Amino acid sequence: MTINELKVELDLNPRAAIEVFNSINNAICIRKNRYLFIDDLTGVCYLFNKNGMIDETTKLKIIGLFTFEYNDTLTTIILPDGIKKIEDYAFRNCTSLNRIEIPDTISCIEPSAFIGCTSLKQIVFKNKTMDEIKKIRDFPWERYKSRIICKES
Question: Global pTM?
């Protein structure tokens, strides 16, 4: 599902936003009445509140333990600005994930965040040099160095 398709669904069911989110595969409840939606077409993440509105006031800061675990449909994800930490097993066994874009706000990626991501080919860091990537707390950069891409926005 794309963001535009989701917006149509929410417009058709304005009083049932939570039911809409619970019925689609690429929406994950990350906190009470907060949903992280990943656009199938672009991989861009959006944070929604309980009313089905994009939530700009509450910035997502952590991709927590097991958030995307065993999601075998996720191929690309672009994490939103403001993410500071990716916890262990956040993407565990996402076997179709081949590309992830990480914002320059990241300061910690725990060692097992991408364990079992057998198709992961590109870990793109926005506005970070390799020296800055090496300083990201807990990130086992040597394990992934052949897949790291530094990208300027």
Answer: 0.82
